[in-house]
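Q&A log
Question type: sequence-to-structure
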Amino acid sequence: MLIFTNRTVSGTGTRRELGRAFTPYADALTWAAAQAVDDGKWRLDRLTVDGDDARATAALLEVFNGGRPVLLYLHGFNNTPQACFQRCARLEALYDVNVVGFS
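Response status: OK
Response body:
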């Protein structure tokens, strides 16, 4: 699943994760492919921080050309990024769709 967010990114290397904080009214946009690893943990692959429109479009086109219907999921303001990941993964499993989540 592809996740777009305006939340801050913490950590380094393979231990980068999305935090709860964000800068109000900021134009920066971050995205990644979220993968479940184990015990409720998630890995962010192809993490792009402060990406531009052309790169965001390329990431979205990859999902839309994936051969399955695409579901866009907007998760609530008072939820963690991990809750968004879990719901998106459940939607993918239930409905056999590619999910683009917005956190």
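Response note: The chain has two helices and seven strands.
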